[in-house]
Design brief:
Structural class: mainly beta
Strand content: 35-45%
Radius of gyration: 26 Å
Helix content: under 10%
Distance between the termini: 62 Å
Largest sheet: 21 strands, mixed
Number of strands: 56
Number of helices: 2
């Protein structure tokens, strides 16, 4: 029998067109598969005849069938029960969104025979999750935060900034897996993990921890770089544990100290007092902390380098850092009244990936140096992640000798942080956007990078002024240089030979999720219109069709401008991969843009892919659509 509240909800949905969220004690069961939380057809309910979706006062049950549940807003429940069988993903529409799933009275639990995976993709769970014992893996992705109960066998997978948090009780889990980041292990008495695994993701695969609060019981896979001294026998050659950072003071992020791991597997801070205070006489096993203003007089090779409040002039020389640890020290590069301390005038050569973590709000660039590295051949290798409380960091660096990915500071507030491009030549460096706006710093800019990846927004104006910015990815020919010089390809993205355009962030399943937005609206007479996305022979557009039907894409469909057309010319390779099982025949938009002038066509399709060009979408845009018959194949374009 339909309750009065249910009837009111139904009428509200009919009359006002709003989701009929239930306020009674109904229990809703997800039917399985991919769908939206706000789609009432995806739910069954014990409240006979009720329409709507679960909301405050109701409970949710997710059964054994694989589920991908997308929230469009934060939700409060009285109960949540998820099967420990199968894969169950709670997610937001994209990595730039973050919602909260609040479960009252810590009434969230796992149930069932076990062996499954539970994923919270940019979903923070407000409330403790109990009964994890039978769950194989808990994945926490992006800006998500989860408070789980103990489970000595459950793997914890932290992805692209995910946070596992605790309470006053000690926590013990199975393997800890770090995929991209930096991630966070926070707010607990202590955490103990069986072992450590590192996977490539978006950003550097590392985690912030509190000193003496995290233990890796089997430390055989924990990377240590440096000498053989220990905290019990201290000196400047204590080896550095590269996959962890000691969080700043009472803050939860922004690591500033070096750490090591002792014989019992406990991650501990290396005191700055044990380090050398100058590069003079330091060797490749030594850790250095420069706390007084200094100027280098020669190249230096050290194990790790920290900088105190007075900054440092590298004197035009190169500091090679074997562990990759090159960052602010305990006191940062800031002193009250003297907020402009910097490390300047030289080159930082990193031999391992590094997280540049700023501990203080800043409006200046802390490291005005050029970065390069050693031993990296694949330019999609994550090498630097910026993690700053405010703007700044090394946007002035040209990365000319750098190979790999450098990730921008993450913006948690929808596109409010800018990363500014200067004219540069870095054909083997990939810029990865993390919910950030990429813009030109001055007028008439040509930036030559190896690639662009991530989830963000590309803006071709600066301070509301017109620019002639062109972003070139890969190698430029003399003819290409001439086109840029005479503004034939003004305000364009060009993917040249060996260049890569890879929209989306690498998620928990290894596939890319998210989009790069390139609006081409003309808001005023003196602001530019995005003219073209051009992919030349030898360039690659890289995307993934994920098991939940999402994919990384270029979206230039935000604004339609009459008489202004975006040219999309594809002459390179569209590389399409898939992570896991996907539905047959489902269309996935790879490139979205508005109706207008479009050039180029597919030359060949291999291994059973069905490809449609200029497919009109519901929003009026057009897309290149790939329907899956086989996966992991390459589609040639011309």
């Amino acid at each position: 029998m339909t309750t009065v509240r249910a009837l009111i909800a139904i009428l509200a949905a009919i009359v006002f067109g709003v989701p009929a969220a239930m306020a009674d004690a109904a229990t809703y069961t997800w039917k399985g598969g991919v769908g939206s939380w706000n789609d009432s057809t995806m739910w069954a309910t014990t409240d006979a005849g009720a329409a709507g979706v679960p909301g405050e006062g109701s409970s949710v049950v997710v059964g054994d069938a694989d589920s991908f549940i997308e929230l469009s807003e934060s939700v409060t429940l009285d109960g949540l029960t998820v099967s420990s069988v199968g894969k169950h993903v709670f997610r937001t529409p994209g990595p730039s969104k973050n919602y909260t799933l609040k479960v009252n009275n810590n009434n969230a639990k796992l149930a069932g025979a076990g062996g499954g995976t539970l994923v919270f993709d940019n979903i923070t769970v407000d409330g403790k999750i109990t009964d994890l014992a039978n769950l194989k893996q808990l994945a926490i992705v992006g800006s998500a935060m989860v408070f789980p109960a103990n489970s000595e066998t459950t793997e914890i997978l932290l992805v692209n900034g995910g946070c596992i948090s605790g309470s006053s009780e000690d926590k013990m889990f199975g393997k800890l897996i770090l995929q991209g980041g930096p991630n966070l292990i926070s707010k607990g008495n202590s955490f103990s993990f069986a072992s450590l695994e590192i996977r490539r993701g978006s950003g550097v695969s590392a985690a912030y921890v509190k000193s003496d609060k995290v233990t890796i019981r089997d430390r055989s896979t924990v990377e240590m770089v440096g000498g053989t001294q220990t905290l019990d026998n201290p000196g400047p050659q204590i080896p550095v544990c590269t996959q962890f950072l000691i969080a700043y003071g009472d803050e939860t992020r922004y690591g500033h100290s070096l750490c090591t791991i002792n014989a019992n597997g406990v991650i501990r801070k290396i005191p700055e007092s044990t380090m050398l205070d100058s590069f003079e006489g330091a060797g490749e096993l030594d850790n250095v902390c420069v706390t007084n203003g200094a100027t280098l007089s020669a190249n230096a090779t050290v194990n790790a380098a920290l900088f105190g409040a007075m900054g440092c002039n590298l004197g035009g020389y190169t500091v090679t850092v074997k562990s990759g640890q090159f960052r602010c020290g305990e006191k940062g590069l800031w002193v009250e009244g003297y907020g402009d301390r910097q490390v300047t005038n030289g080159v930082a050569c990193l031999c391992k990936p590094n997280v540049l973590a700023d501990t203080i709000n800043n409006a200046t660039v802390r490291f005005d140096v050029d970065f390069k590295n050693e031993g990296v051949d694949d330019m999609l290798t994550p090498m630097i992640s910026y993690d700053a409380m405010n703007t700044g960091w090394a946007y002035k660096a040209n990365y000319e000798g750098f190979t790999g990915v450098f990730s921008t500071p993450k913006s948690d507030t929808s596109m409010t942080r800018y990363y500014y491009l200067q004219s540069s030549t870095a054909p083997k460096a990939v810029l990865e956007l993390r919910n950030i706006t990429l813009a030109a710093q001055v007028g008439s800019v040509k930036s030559n990078l190896g690639g662009i990846a991530g989830d963000g927004y590309i803006n071709f104006s600066w301070n509301g002024n017109k620019t002639h910015c062109n972003i070139w990815l890969g190698e430029m020919s003399e003819e290409d240089e001439a086109c840029v010089a005479d503004k034939t390809v003004d305000c364009s993205i060009m993917v040249g030979n060996k260049g890569v355009f890879a929209p989306g962030l690498v998620g928990y399943d290894g596939g890319r999720r998210g989009l790069i937005r390139v609006p081409y609206n003309e808001t005023a007479a003196d602001t530019p219109v995005m003219r073209a996305f051009l992919m030349q022979e030898g360039g690659t557009f890289m995307t993934s069709i994920n098991s939940d039907g999402t994919c990384g894409c270029l979206d230039a469909s935000e604004t339609k401008v009459e008489g202004k057309y975006l040219s999309v010319s594809l002459a390179g390779t569209l590389s399409v991969t898939a992570a896991g099982k996907i539905a047959f025949g489902a269309p996935y938009p790879i490139i979205k843009y508005h109706e207008g002038k479009r050039t180029g066509k597919f030359a060949s399709v291999t291994k059973g892919f069905r490809v449609q060009y200029d497919v009109r979408q519901d929003d009026g845009s057009y897309a290149v659509v790939v329907s899956r018959k086989n996966v992991g194949t390459v589609i040639k374009l011309r």
